[in-house]
Amino acid sequence: MIRHLKMKLSFLTLILISSIVFATDEITISKAFIKMPRPGVDVTAGFATIKADIDLKVMKVSNKNFKNIELHSMKMTYGVMEMRKLVEPKIGPNSPLVLSPGNDHLMLFGINEKLKSGENLDLTFVFKDSKDNKITKVFKFVVK
Questions:
Q1: Cα separation of 17 and 23, whole Å?
Q2: Contact 118/142 with Cβ under 8 angstroms?
Q3: Nearest CA to 143 among 22, 61, 113?
Q4: Sign of CA dihedral 81, 85, 90, 96
Q5: Would you say 118 and 143 are in contact if contact means Cβ atoms under 8 Å apart?
Q6: What is the pTM of this model?
Q7: In the chain, fewer beta carbons within 10 Å around the N or the C end?
Q8: What is the domain extent for residue 70?
Q9: Residue 17 lies in a domain
Q10: pLDDT digit string (tens) for 31-65?
Q11: Structural domain tally of the chain?
Q12: Which residues contact 71 (CB under 8 A, 6 or more apart)?
């Protein structure tokens, strides 16, 4: 009977440890949309708020419908709008990545197929954690 109880405890301990080791880190997105491009233009912008419960860097964003997707900052300097490519922007438990009009945003270059208002597009984000592990996550963006 004691041997049986020890086996049950060992099994429960193993399950508990496994659930801790294999727990997935939470990365969420909200307010994700892509702006409908102006006629004749093959560049547009995307916006969203991305949150994570661990420290991450955004390494890459892609979608087969675009030749290239970059993260950009945008700010007004002496009345002139400046845009700069963001290199490996960081996200953390207390610092979401907020991509919004007039601020940081996604730039989507080289549209291969015409976008339709209301359609959903899957954008693939590649993140790296503090241990250099890659985390790939696909998020839905709606075209507006």
A1: 10
A2: yes
A3: 113
A4: positive
A5: yes
A6: 0.81
A7: N
A8: 25-143
A9: no
A10: 999 999 999 999 999 999 999 999 999 999 999 99
A11: 1
A12: 58, 61, 85, 86, 89, 99, 104, 105, 106, 107
